[in-house]
Design goal:
Layout: H1 2-21, E1 26-30, E2 33-37, H2 41-57, E3 86-88, E4 91-99, E5 105-113, H3 115-128, H4 138-156, H5 165-182, H6 189-202
Antiparallel strand pairs: 1-2, 3-4, 4-5
């Protein structure tokens, strides 16, 4: 019940209050994390000061480290500001290069998986210790990790999915090491690649991440 009650409390303490006091200001909130959109720095500071007062009224306070005014720099907003990125729901929002339909590049303010989320997923992959699970078959390894990897790809791959490439490549690297531990003959990189590409030909969908990252990089 705790999360439900907390969300109900924040609905009245934050959502409805902000809609009433600043009806032109858009915002998103998930649990106790929120992003408030302002059109000028002056408006942002006004809203921030009001929010600080509102939180005191309801017995809360804004997180001193996470509460920041951020300038959403892009092709149109070319000014300078101390902070030009923020993290929300596992994504880092910031200025990044993007491409138009005609192939030309421009600066956009878009999300990509955050460094913190990448670090957490990398730790999870390391904890799997795939290279030591030589009693399992490739099919068994796939059944173990595919649901987790599919969740990561479905969530963090919605925007700027190439930022996931190092993580998916790391999984392939562990599979390379697994093959070398399980089959001594595959410790030759040439033989390994012949074996690997044979599996890709027979079952290209064996591992979920092979949709985006099939080829392992370099010999182990």
């Amino acid at each position: 019940m705790s999360p439900v009650l907390a969300n109900l409390f924040m609905h009245y303490a934050f959502d409805t209050w902000l809609e009433r006091e600043f009806p032109t200001v858009a915002f998103e909130r998930y649990a106790d994390d929120a992003v408030v959109h302002c059109v000028t720095e002056r408006q942002a500071r006004e809203v921030l000061a009001a929010l600080e007062g509102r939180m005191v009224e309801v017995g809360l306070r804004l997180h001193p480290d996470k509460t920041r005014i951020v300038y959403c720099k892009d092709q149109r907003r070319r000014g300078s500001y101390e902070l030009t990125s923020f993290t929300f729901l596992g994504y880092r929002f910031g200025p990044r290069k993007a491409k138009r339909p005609d192939g030309t590049s421009f600066l956009s303010f878009i999300p990509a998986v955050s460094p913190q989320a990448m670090a957490k997923m990398s730790q999870e992959v390391r904890r799997w210790r795939l290279h030591l699970r030589t009693r399992l078959s490739l099919d068994e390894l796939a059944k173990t990790i595919n649901p987790i990897v599919a969740g990561w790809m479905n969530y963090y791959g919605r925007f700027y999915r190439t930022r996931l490439d190092p993580l998916l490549q790391r999984i392939n690297a562990y599979l390379m090491r697994w093959a070398g531990q399980k089959y001594r003959r595959l410790r030759s990189f040439r033989r390994f690649m012949t074996w690997w590409r044979g599996i890709l030909d027979r079952d290209p969908a064996l591992f979920t991440h092979w949709r985006w990252m099939r080829e392992p990089s370099g010999p182990w």
